[in-house]
Design a protein that fits this description.
With about 260 residues, this protein is α+β, with helices and mostly antiparallel strands. The protein folds into three domains: about 5-50, Uridine Diphospho-n-acetylenolpyruvylglucosamine Reductase, domain 2 (2-Layer Sandwich), CATH 3.30.43; about 55-165, Uridine Diphospho-n-acetylenolpyruvylglucosamine Reductase, domain 3, CATH 3.30.465.10; about 170-264, 2-Layer Sandwich (Enolase-like, domain 1). The chain is about 35% helix and about 25% strand. It has helices at about 10-20, 35-40, 75-80, 80-85, 90-95, 100-105, 110-115, 120-130, 140-145, 210-220, 245-264; strands spanning about 5-10, 25-30, 45-50, 60-65, 65-70, 130-135, 140, 145-150, 150, 160-165, 170-175, 185-190, 195-200, 210. The strands form four sheets. A five-stranded antiparallel sheet has the order 4-5-10-6-7. The longest helix is centred in the last third of the chain and has 19 residues, at about 245-264. The N and C termini lie far apart (about 50 Å). The mean pLDDT is about 95.
Length: about 260
């Protein structure tokens, strides 16, 4: 790890002011990605501004027909939240299968979403639930937030402050995890509203995406049998030592079918 300066932010405004002092300053949330990357010398920020202890970025509340989760809320807190379990069970299910207990008690919602790892779990919930990402500058709809692998609509030194998840009629999440890392080789999030059924997929491609074929089939008939013969184009899917692109396409149908069965 290369040497760096550390600053513990006292507020969001202080964090933004401090991070600009560095030539390559970075915000530090839970540190689940940034710290290992620095240890491997794949990143060398000269300044870390810790925002993990800011109370204004922490907590879960209900605001009308929306569940609002602060960016620095840990995965474990989301998993155990009575509000989340009552109104968005799919989000609680997702948080419960992230990494291991150590990661869930340290990692944060905002840090995961801002990193936009193509195999992260939370982006599937953000896109599937059509959430809004609130920053210190603006509100970004989920459809416009994820751009490419590790790339989002966030501007330099823009901080996610909270994410607003609309309450839906039903939701759920299932993934086929890598047994070592617990990252999803394929993860599927389904959200059912009065108007539509949304199916978001993570792990299969370079960034999270909606599976329109599954959405069309489930909108007509919300039943696992509706997905039995679903064949997806996989030319843009990931292919590595863990799974071929074709296998990932197959897993989307399998995990979506299992999830639908569990949601009925």
């Amino acid at each position: 790890m290369y040497p760096f300066e550390y600053h513990k932010a006292q507020s969001v405004e202080d964090a933004v002011a401090q991070v600009t002092r560095g030539d390559d300053g970075k915000f530090l949330a839970g540190g689940m990605t940034l710290i290992p990357t620095m240890k491997q010398r794949l990143a060398s920020p000269d300044l870390l501004v810790d925002i993990g202890q800011l109370d204004s970025l922490n907590g879960i509340r209900k605001d009308g027909d929306t569940i609002v989760v602060g960016a620095m809320t840990t995965h474990a807190t989301v998993e155990r939240s009575p509000l989340v379990n009552a109104h968005l069970p799919g989000l609680a299910q997702l948080a419960a299968v992230i990494g291991d207990p150590q990661v869930r008690n340290r990692g944060t919602l905002g840090g995961s979403v801002a990193n936009a790892d193509p195999a992260a779990d939370y982006p599937a919930a953000v896109l599937g639930l059509n959430a809004s990402i609130v920053t210190d500058k603006r509100t970004i709809p989920a459809e416009a937030f994820f751009i490419d692998i590790f790339e989002t609509a966030l501007e330099e030194h823009e901080i996610i402050t909270e994410i607003r998840f609309p309450i839906v009629k039903n939701s759920g999440y299932k993934k086929f995890p890598n047994p070592a890392s617990h990252y999803p080789i394929v993860g599927v999030f389904i959200a059912v509203t009065d108007d539509e059924t949304r199916v978001a997929v993570t792990g299969a491609a370079g960034f999270v995406f909606r599976c329109e074929e599954a959405e069309k089939r489930l909108a007509a008939r919300f039943d696992a049998a509706a997905l039995e013969d679903m064949k997806l184009s996989h030319e843009d899917f990931n292919e590595d030592i863990h799974a071929t692109a074709d296998y990932r396409a197959h897993l989307i149908a399998v995990m979506a079918s299992r999830l639908v069965e569990s949601m009925r």
